[in-house]
TrEMBL record:
Keyword Repressor attributed: no
InterPro entries xref list: Glyco_trans_2-like (IPR001173), Nucleotide-diphossugar_trans (IPR029044)
Location of the Glycosyltransferase 2-like domain: 54-218
Membrane-crossing segments per the record: 12-33, 304-323, 343-370, 391-415
Keyword DNA-binding set for record: no
Coiled-coil positions: none
Keywords linked to the UniProt accession: Glycosyltransferase, Membrane, Transferase, Transmembrane, Transmembrane helix
Native source organism of the sequence: Methanooceanicella nereidis
Name of the protein described by the UniProt record: Glycosyltransferase 2-like domain-containing protein
Molecular-function GO term, any one: glycosyltransferase activity
A Pfam entry, by short name: Glycos_transf_2
Gene3D superfamilies (alphabetical): Spore Coat Polysaccharide Biosynthesis Protein SpsA, Chain A
Length: 425
């Protein structure tokens, strides 16, 4: 009976290991393939070319930062007659709407408009209000806590000269803050941004986060059950056959990031549930023949299969570690372990699966180091060359994220997220 259980656990381990390898191999595939691809082409644009753009910012109870946000949007370098800024306030009880209205009047900001969401049905409803009121084809969505650089619109809009491009998102990073959790979040963002940039080089990015621009003709509204608007936009536009570009330039920063582990884990859990729901919404939209299907099904693996595999992976590691300790205790009782020959007998009597585990762990560690160090060479353009991430912090964040995604899977099975999840930034 014990041998049957042992063999069964071996087979389970191999299956879990294959799934983990497939997720890790995803980065290697893109690193090697991206060497053969350059940035998505966009024709030369004259300096006088400025397409009309509508910026939509959904806000709720942002009285402490809304004036900073308005000032930031007014500093964007773009012709005012080609730019429209819509601030959609969720009827904030802290007076955010009044601050916006007063700021527009005091600054004679004729291209700024305040829209009130009377019943406050959440961020998605607010974005739909903005889309219905928008005057231009290109829509940029930004959060209240995202500071944008002045040239973000010009740098992003030029890609839409290519009719195959449906959405563009630049790098957005957290503000560099002191502390373990903020530094871990920064490393995690940098690594994910690099991956999305490589995705857009050879196919289409799976996500545009924090700030993104898209064609309104491809997405005139968000379904009411959407929670992760950025993830939904990328998948929706990709499923229609258009490219989603992830611009390798840092064009903004989030001024509010989790400072402690509990807040970080709560934030990631809510994001995990929202992303899982979004992935499942598109299960019938990507055909196998579509070149973007690889990225979509990889997201299915990363968000659903990998967390389950990772949990089994850790359990089996603990099991085999305890098994090895028991064998060592036995040899210590029978042999003199000060002898090298005794250690040789000990190691040769370990099951071969133990050595497979050790080899696999070494390869995974090598893959993490290689991925982190090579990403800079794979993305030699833009202003991201100096953005480095810590391998250790990324690994810690990834481990936490796998368990959080596992909890998100359980949460999604027990309770499907709806508009009750108001605003996930």
């Amino acid at each position: 009976m014990d041998s049957i259980i042992f063999n069964l656990m071996n087979y389970i381990y191999y299956i879990m290991l294959i799934i983990i390898y497939l997720c890790i191999a995803y980065s290697f595939v893109f690193y090697t393939t991206s060497l053969q691809h350059r940035e998505k082409p966009s024709r030369d644009i004259e300096d006088s070319y400025y397409p009309g753009i509508t910026i939509i910012a959904s806000v709720f109870n942002e009285a402490d930062i809304i004036e900073t946000k308005l000032k930031n949007l007014s500093d964007i370098i773009y012709p005012s007659d080609r730019l429209e800024v819509l601030i959609v306030d969720g009827n904030s009880p802290d007076g955010t709407g009044d601050i916006v209205s007063r700021w527009i009047k005091d600054n004679n900001a004729d291209n700024f408009r305040l829209l009130i969401q009377r019943d406050n049905k959440g961020k998605i409803d607010a974005l739909n209000i903005g889309l219905r009121a928008a005057s231009h084809e290109l829509i940029m969505v930004t959060d209240a806590d995202t500071e944008l650089v002045p040239g973000v619109l010009k740098s992003t809009a030029k890609y839409f000269a290519d009719p195959c491009v449906g959405a563009v998102g630049p790098w957005i990073l957290p503000k560099e803050l002191d502390g373990f959790v903020p530094n871990m979040e920064m490393s995690f963002w940098i690594t994910n941004n690099k991956m999305r940039t490589l995705e857009s080089r050879i196919s289409s990015s799976s996500l545009v986060a924090g700030c993104y621009m898209f064609r309104r003709s491809l997405q005139r509204s968000y379904p009411a059950n959407v929670v992760a608007d950025d993830f939904y936009t990328a998948l929706n536009i990709s499923s229609q056959g258009y490219d989603v570009i992830y611009l390798a330039q840092v064009m903004g920063s989030e001024i509010r990031t989790p400072h402690d582990l509990r807040t970080w884990m709560t934030h990631k859990l809510r994001k995990g549930i929202a992303n899982l729901q979004t992935v499942m919404m598109f299960r019938d939209r990507f055909s196998i023949s579509n070149k973007r299907s690889f990225i979509y099904y990889n997201k299915v693996m990363q968000h659903i299969l990998a967390p389950i595999a990772f949990a089994c992976f850790m359990i089996l590691h603990i099991y085999y570690a305890l098994y090895s300790v028991n064998v060592l205790n036995y040899f210590s009782y029978v042999y003199d372990m000060s002898s090298l020959y005794s250690w040789y007998l000990f190691m040769t009597n370990l099951p071969y699966v133990i050595w497979v585990i050790l080899a696999a762990d070494v390869l995974l560690a090598f893959g993490a180091v290689y991925s982190n160090r090579s990403a800079k060479r794979r993305i030699p353009r833009g202003n991201v060359d100096s953005k480095k991430s810590s391998v250790v912090l990324v690994a810690i964040a990834a481990i936490f994220s796998q368990f959080i995604l596992l909890a998100a899977i359980v949460g999604l099975l027990m309770y499907s997220p709806s508009s009750k999840y108001k605003r996930i930034s």
